[in-house]
């Protein structure tokens, strides 16, 4: 049976935090979840872009005439700055707690080598380390039976974790760095699932990928290098091959809301070369299930960010 947005169950009373929700997949997921009744916290690095997106979410709901919709608020979060990440709970309000779903969605792809405020290679820093630190900072605020959905990419399959040169200081390839960060997303999602199970904490952690979706992701790299040719090529490729961003959001929506989701699983589009189509459970690369690499990455990530996961049974 084909799973669509109509299958998203009612979300009334649920609190859902989505990183990078002002654009692309995060934005499309936010629209559906608010329409279904959730209170969605859009965690965005620009308050202006976030507020504009929140306005668009409210307008889209008014157009549907939905009467049981939830609400949407914007909170500042810059994943390229650990201070912004670890102070994020201070910007949440009582109504934002406890959190039922954390969607680690924000991302950057294929950019020239840049660093975060803390000196991490930026793709690894934003896509993985920022989300690692955010999840650790919020873990005690997650409700019983909460879900953590981490958005990876099919590109994880060509990823390797270069523990000797995590930040690309010796040698940097923009696609290798992206693939490394997306493999890190999955190693993290599965390791988190094992750790919450060991600690007997009732949280479900899963990985997803959106296939190939038409969003702003593909234009960021060309914008930074001012490459007009690459910008046009990316736009043309999106127009021909990509599915709409709303369809790219389906695996995230499935992982965040479907009743049969199990921890440690991976969801993505089940159609043409897993680039498009309705969501289904999939297997990620062999490397993504490497427990030793996952444990090592976890330890390095905790050391680099200074964030330890409490995983107390009596959380908030
Ligand atoms: N689109 C695809 O085909 C595709 C394929 C595979 C995987 N993915 C994954 O899907 C996820 C969502 O990407 P998308 O396609 O929706 O791209 P997008 O439209 O570019 O959205 C990315 C979001 O991440 C935010 N972001 C970037 N840097 C940030 C930072 N330092 N702190 C907080 N937020 C930050 C962006 O904010 P600004 O608007 O302020 O820059 C934007 O809201 C990413 O993890 C990506 O790797 C996408």
Quick structural overview:
By secondary structure, the chain is an alpha/beta fold. It is built from 11 helices and 10 strands.
Outline type: globular
Structural class: alpha/beta
Count of extended strands: 10
Indicate the low-confidence ranges by residue numbers.
none
What would the average pLDDT be, to the nearest integer?
A: 94
Ligands bound, unique: NADP nicotinamide-adenine-dinucleotide phosphate
Task: Please describe the structure with a list of short key phrases separated by commas or semicolons.
316 residues; alpha/beta; Rossmann fold; two-stranded parallel ribbon; binds NADP nicotinamide-adenine-dinucleotide phosphate
Overview of the molecule:
The protein has a single domain (10-303), classed as NAD(P)-binding Rossmann-like Domain (Rossmann fold, 3-Layer(aba) Sandwich), CATH 3.40.50. The radius of gyration is 18 Å and the shape is globular. The longest helix is centred in the middle third of the chain and has 25 residues, at 174-198. By secondary structure, the protein is of the alpha/beta class. It has an eight-stranded mixed beta sheet, sandwiched between helices. It is 41% helix and 16% strand.
């Amino acid at each position: 049976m084909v799973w669509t947005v109509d299958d998203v169950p009612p979300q009334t009373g649920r609190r859902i935090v989505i990183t990078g929700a002002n654009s692309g997949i995060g934005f499309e997921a936010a629209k559906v979840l608010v329409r279904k009744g959730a209170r969605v916290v859009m965690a965005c690095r620009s308050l202006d872009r976030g507020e504009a997106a929140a306005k668009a979410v409210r307008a889209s709901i008014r157009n549907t005439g939905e009467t049981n919709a939830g609400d949407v608020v914007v909170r500042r979060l810059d994943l390229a700055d650990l201070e912004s990440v670890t102070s994020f709970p201070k910007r949440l309000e009582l109504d934002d707690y406890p959190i039922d779903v954390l969607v680690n969605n924000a991302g950057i792809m294929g950019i020239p080598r840049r660093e975060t405020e803390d000196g991490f290679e930026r793709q690894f820093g934003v896509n993985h380390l920022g989300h690692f630190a955010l999840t650790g900072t919020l873990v005690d605020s997650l409700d019983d039976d909460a879900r953590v959905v981490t958005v990876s990419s099919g590109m994880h399959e060509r990823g390797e974790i270069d523990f000797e040169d995590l930040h690309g200081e010796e040698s940097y390839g923009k696609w290798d760095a992206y693939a490394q960060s997306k493999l890190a997303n999955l190693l993290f999602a599965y390791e988190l699932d094992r750790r919450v199970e060991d600690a007997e904490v009732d949280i479900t952690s899963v990985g997803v990928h959106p296939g190939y979706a038409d969003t702003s992701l593909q234009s960021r790299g060309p914008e930074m290098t001012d490459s007009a040719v690459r910008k046009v090529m990316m736009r043309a490729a999106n127009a021909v091959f990509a599915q709409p961003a709303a369809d790219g959001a389906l695996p995230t929506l499935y992982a965040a809301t479907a009743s049969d989701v199990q921890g440690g699983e991976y969801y993505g589009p089940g159609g043409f070369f897993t680039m498009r189509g309705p969501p289904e459970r999939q297997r990620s690369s062999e490397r993504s299930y490497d427990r030793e690499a996952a444990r090592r990455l976890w330890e390095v990530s905790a050391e680099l960010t200074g964030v330890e996961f409490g995983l107390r049974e009596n959380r908030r």
